[in-house]
Design brief:
The protein is mainly alpha-helical and 414 residues long. The protein has helices at residues 3-24, 30-36, 43-71, 75-93, 95-98, 102-129, 134-162, 166-182, 208-216, 222-250, 254-270, 272-282, 285-303, 308-336, 342-370, 373-399. The protein has 16 helices and no strands.
């Protein structure tokens, strides 16, 4: 890999990191922020504040990806997405002085999410374009995601104790940084004219609709999409229910809850790259399937923690096992997708991931209110274990290069 490609890998990883920090900054103090913006500040209001952004992620992730594949341009779209997201955060900060209702706040979150997912998903797609090992590139994306979440949870908790709106200003500044960073990166989209060795691409460009149809008609992608859905479900669960749980069960403030959340995101971030490289060497099966089972078990243990130190230590284990799963799952997407449909394929992965976050917020919030915190952890933990058991055969066949039978779809369609 050339020096230019290595530099671009670092720059893109920093962009992914900055987008994640901008999101997670708001999580530790979400109850205080929602109250400042005119909401009730309870679990239900916090849930809808987070859900509104991820609903836009679901709708727009695939559209950004297909548009970038069709035009052969990713960098300008990332810049537009980042600047649009920054503008929406700045508008959100003006809400207390404008005197508008909480419904307008949710609308701003939807518009901001529509822009932000473009910057996030296409930055990850550009890492896919680099070549040099799919596990390695997705490991770089994973470490950026994990470090972004870790830094965001700690800094966001500290900022929110000073001023509930401070994380919003920080998020706007970070997305502005993303626009500046990605503007310096070489566009290696297969249709951009800059290609890595080994990429063989038809010179005839398909339209966004055709590209989306190709991705939809590729059943093998549903396997990593399913794992991405469940993995992000657990992340959404911790981002909402985990914060409330740590504050209610152990009497923590926003900063303290952010620190405990960082006990997960820290090892999750630091181990992403080596785990991605490991999956290149040993295959995807063990990291994805065995890692998911261990991940699910450790989530349940967190919910049963008798003390704060025990919960913190277990959160470290959650991070370790999560790091084993995440880059291998994303690498499966790159393994399966053709070079000229990477944007749509990663967009699809982020659609399912965003649906997972939404489900994590809704399932976690609802089960915690109806059943209790421990029962909510059990539900989410067994969901992670369940997908590993159900899809283990499909992952094994993908890892060995065999065609994959997907329920309801014949293998000939793959």
């Amino acid at each position: 890999m050339s020096d230019s490609a290595r530099r671009d890998r670092l720059t893109l990883a920093l962009s992914v990191w900055a987008v994640l920090v901008s999101q997670v900054l708001l999580y530790p103090g979400v109850s205080d922020l929602v109250q400042t913006l005119g909401g009730a500040g309870d679990l239900d209001a916090g849930m809808w504040f987070l859900v509104s952004e991820y609903a836009a992620f679901v709708v727009f992730a695939g559209l950004w990806g297909a548009l970038s594949d069709a035009t052969g341009r990713r960098v300008p779209l990332i810049v537009v997405g980042a600047l649009g997201g920054a503008a929406c955060y700045l508008l959100l900060s003006l809400v207390p002085s404008l005197g508008v209702g909480f419904g307008v706040v949710l609308l701003i979150r939807v518009v901001g999410g529509a822009f932000t997912i473009g910057a996030f998903s296409l930055s990850m797609t550009m890492l896919m374009d680099l070549g040099g090992g799919n596990g390695r590139n997705m490991g770089a994306a994973g470490i950026a995601i994990g470090l972004g979440a870790a830094v965001g949870s700690i800094v966001g908790g500290r900022l929110s104790t000073a001023d509930p709106l401070a994380p919003v200003y920080g998020a706007a500044a970070l997305l502005g940084l993303v626009a500046l960073l990605t503007a310096t990166v070489t566009d290696r989209s297969p249709n951009s004219g800059v290609r890595d060795a080994g990429d063989s691409v038809d010179d005839d460009r398909a339209g966004p609709r055709d590209i989306l149809r190709k991705v939809v008609d590729r059943p093998a992608l549903r396997v990593p999409y399913a794992f991405g859905f469940i993995d992000r479900l657990t992340a959404g669960f911790f981002s909402l229910v985990g914060i409330y749980y740590f504050r209610d069960a152990f009497g923590l403030d926003a900063f303290g809850a952010g620190l405990v959340l960082a006990m997960f995101f820290g090892p999750f971030a630091l181990l992403q790259y080596p785990m991605g490289v490991l999956s290149d060497r040993i295959g995807r099966f063990l990291p994805v399937v065995v890692g998911s089972i261990l991940y699910g078990v450790s989530i349940i243990v967190v919910g049963a923690s008798p003390s704060l130190p025990f919960a913190a230590v277990t959160m470290v284990l959650v991070g370790v096992f999560g790091a084993l799963v995440s880059p291998a799952t994303m690498a499966l997407v790159t393994d399966i997708a053709d070079a000229d449909e990477r944007g749509a394929a990663m967009g699809g992965f982020n659609i399912f991931g965003s649906l997972g976050f939404l489900t994590g917020f809704l399932l976690g919030g609802s089960s915690a209110e109806l059943l209790g915190y421990f029962e909510a952890f059990v539900v989410v933990g067994f969901t992670e274990i369940g997908i590993a058991l159900v899809a283990s055969r499909a992952v094994r066949r993908l890892a060995t290069g065999e065609s994959v039978a997907v329920p309801g779809v014949s293998e000939a369609d793959d």
